[in-house]
Amino acid sequence: MKQKTLLILLGTILFSISFWACDVTSTIVNDDADDTEEATAAADNEDEITDAEANNDGDHEQTSDYTWSSSDVKSITLIGTSVSKSSDDVSVSGSTITITAAGTYSFNGNLSNGQIVVDAAETDLVRLVLDGVDISCTNSAPIYIKSAEKVIVVANANTENTLIDGSSYDYDDVEDEEPNATIFSKTDLTLYGEGKLVLNGNYNDAINSKDGLIVDVNQLEINAIDDGIRGKDYLIIKDGTIKINSGGDGLKSDNDNDETRGYIEILTVDIDITAGGDAISAETDILIENGTFDLTTNGSSSYSDTSLKGLKSGVNMIVNAGTFTINSSEDAIHSDQTITLNGGTYTISASDDGIHADYDLTINSGDYKITKSYEGIESTSGDLAINGGTFDITSSDDGLNVAAGGDNMGGGPGGWGKSATASYTLYLAPERMAVNAQGDGLDSNGSIEMSDGLVIVNGPTVSGNGILDYDDSFVQTGGTLIGAGSSGMLQAPGSSSSINCVALVFRSTQKAATLCHIETSDGNELVTFAPAKDIQAFIYSSPELDQGVSYNFYSGGTATGTAQNGYYTDGTYTAGTLQKTFTLSQRITGYQLSN
After folding, report:
1. Residue 304's pLDDT is what?
2. How many CA atoms lie within 13 A of 562 on its CB side?
3. What is the structure's pLDDT at 26?
C-alpha cells in the first residue's frame, strides 16, 4: 500500500487519476443369486473427464475390471486369529493372508492382529471383496499390496468394513519405511463398491498408493494421524460420501518428479474434511466437476511450515461446479499458478486470502461469500478477471488485489509464461459485487477495466488506503460503481472511461449508515446508499449519470425498500440534508462538500 497525493481540489476537478484425456467409467457390483450370471458394466452412462496432461496409464481402469463371475470368487473366512480358505492361490501363516495370483477374493468375518498381503505378478488384476470384515493389525498395514498390475478393494453392498492399524510399524522395506498406511499399495489401487469402509490410521496415512488411486465407494470414513487419502501419481474421486479427520492433508497427490502426475480429479463427491494440513492438495492440477465440500484446516502455521489451505494446487486449478464451505487457517483456495472458477457456491472464512493465485485468476460464474480474509481475492503476478458471478467479500486488507511481481510462469502441464515486468489488469464484469475492506477496496498495481455489473465498495477509514488504488489506469465502459471510504488517497475511474462519475469529499467525517443519495433536480432517484463505516468520500459512476443534467446530493434522511450491502432498491427516499447541487461538466468530476 502506497501513499498517494490527495487528488481532490476545491470546486470541480478532473480525476486523471485447459487437461488430459482420461476415460473414467464405473459400475455397480452385482452378486447374482444363481452364482453363474456375470456382473456387467454400465459404461455408456458414465461421465468422462478430459484435461491437458496424460491419462491414468490407460490400464488402471477398464470396464472389465468391474465384471466377474461369482462362481470364480474364492472365499476366505476370518475367524479371530485364524483363517479358513479355499484356494491354493492363498497362503496363510498365522493370521497373515498372502495372495499370489490374479483373481477375485472375498473376505468376511473378524481378524485380530492380522493382515492381507497381495504379492502377485506385475501383470495380475486382484480384487479384494470385503463382505463385512473387521481387521486389525498392530504393527503393519491391514491391507498391504506389494505387487500386482492393479488391485481393486471392493466394499460390498449392505456391509460395513473396518480396518485398523497400530501406532507403530515393523517395516517390510526398512529403507523406504514401507508399508506406512492402513491400506498401502505399491501399484494402482481402486476403492470401489456400494458398501461402507471405515479406516483408522493410527500410525501415518489411512490410504497410500505409491501409484495411481481411484475412489468410487459409497461410504468412506477415515481417521488418520497423517494424510487421509494419498495417491502419489494421481487421485481420482468419482462418487461417494467421504468423511476425513486427518492430522496431515485430507486428500493428496504428490508426485513431484513427473510434471504430468501429482493431480487430483473429482467428478462428484459429498466430502467433509477436517485436516491439520491442507484439506485438498495436488502437486500439479486440481479439476473439480461437482460435489459438496465441507473443508476445515485447523492447524497453526505460526509454529511450523505446515501448509493449511483449503484447496491447493501446484499448477492449475479448475472448478466447474459444487457447493463449498471452507474454513481455513491460511488461504481457502490457492494455486501456485492459475485458477479458473466456472461456477459453484462458496462460503469462505480464511485467516489469509480467500482466493489466491500466483498468476492468472479467472472467475466466470458462481456465488462467493467471503466472511473473513486478509485479502479477499488476489492474483500476485497475473491478471484477475471477474467475468460474472455474485460476491460478498470482507477483508482485513485489500478486497481485490492485483500485484505485479514474481518469476515467469512456466513448468507444469498447461503452463504459459508471463514476464515479471508485465502490467497486470483487474477486469470487472460481475453480476453483483460487494466489498468491505479495511485496506484498499479494489487494488491493482497495474490497471482496472470495468465493463459490466454492479460493484459496491465499502472501503477503508484510514488515509493510507483508498476505495480504489491503481497505478496505471481505470477505464470504465459499463456497469455501476458505488464507493465509500477515506479520502486521503482518493482515486476514481479515469477520463478514458465512457461512463460518467462523480466524487464527493466531506469536509468532516460522515458517520456509518448515514445515507448518501443522488437524484435529479426534478426528483428522479439514481442511488441511495448506506455506508457500512464512517466515510470521508463517496464515489458514484453509472450510465445513468449524464453531463449537462442538474443533480442534488443529500446526506442523511431515511429510505424504505430493500437494502443489500447498503444499496437500496424499490423504495422511497425521504430527504435529509442537501449537501450539493451539481451539473457534470466533464467525464469525471469531483466536489468538496462544506459539511
Report:
1. 61
2. 3
3. 31
Helix, strand or coil for residue 45? helix
pLDDT of residue 488: 87
Please, are residues 133 and 109 in contact by the beta-carbon 8 Å criterion? yes
Distance CA 113, CA 101 (A): 24
What single letter denotes the amino acid at residue 502?
A: V
Question: Euclidean distance between the first and final Cα of the chain, in Å?
Answer: 29
Inter-residue contact 333 to 379 (CB < 8 Å): no
Query: Could you tell me the maximum CA-CA distance found in the chain, to the nearest angstrom?
Result: 96
What average pLDDT does this structure show over 490-516? 96
∠ CA 319-424-351, nearest 5°, is 55
Give the model's pLDDT for residue 112. Answer: 95
pLDDT given at position 85 = 85
Whole-angstrom CA distances from 308 to 83, 125, 164, 351, 359 are: 43, 37, 26, 10, 20
> Can you give the pTM of this predicted structure?
0.89
Q: At a CB cut-off of 8 Å and minimum separation 6, what does 228 contact?
A: 201, 205, 206, 207, 222, 244, 245, 246, 248, 249, 250, 251, 252, 273, 275
Section 487-512 average pLDDT: 95
CA atoms of 446 and 48, how far apart (whole Å): 40
159 CB contacts (<8 Å, ≥6 apart)? Answer: 130, 131, 132, 195, 196
Write the CB contacts of 44 (distance below 8 Å, at least 6 apart in sequence).
none
- How far, in Å, CA of 445 to CA of 449, rounded? 13
C-alpha cell at 292: 459438496
Q: Is the pLDDT of residue 269 over 50?
A: yes
Q: Phi and psi dihedrals of 72, rounded to 5?
A: -95, -5
Q: Cα 277 to chain center, whole Å?
A: 15
Give per-residue pLDDT as tens, 302-321: 546 799 999 999 999 999 99
Residue 503: C-alpha distances to residues 105, 119, 506, 542, 564 (Å): 75, 75, 10, 12, 22
- For residue 419, pLDDT beyond 50: no
Q: How far is CA 251 from CA 236, 247, 299, 476, 484, in A?
A: 10, 12, 16, 42, 42
Report whether 330 contacts 351 (CB < 8 A). yes
Give the pLDDT score at 56.
56
Tell the burial category of 86 from Cβ atoms under 10 Å away from its Cβ (0-12, 13-18, 19+): exposed
Q: What is the CA radius of gyration of the chain?
A: 30
CA 318 from centroid of its chain's CA atoms: 9
Query: 544 burial class (0-12, 13-18, 19+ CB within 10 angstroms)?
Result: middle
**554-564: average pLDDT:** 96
Cα–chain center distance at 49: 18
Looking at residue 47, what is its pLDDT? 35
CB 467 within 8 A of CB 459: yes
Count Cβ atoms within 10 A of the Cβ of residue 158 and give its class: 0-12 exposed, 13-18 middle, 19 or more buried: exposed
Cβ neighbour number for residue 496 with a 10 Å cutoff: 13
Using one digit for the tens of pLDDT, what is the confidence trace for 203-240? Answer: 999 999 999 999 999 999 999 999 999 999 999 999 99
Residue 188 in grid coordinates: 494402482
Q: Which amino acid appears at position 43 of this protein?
A: A
Per-residue confidence at 46, pLDDT binned at 50, 70, 90?
very low
- Check residue 548 and give left, alpha or beta (phi > 0: left; psi -120 to 50: alpha): left
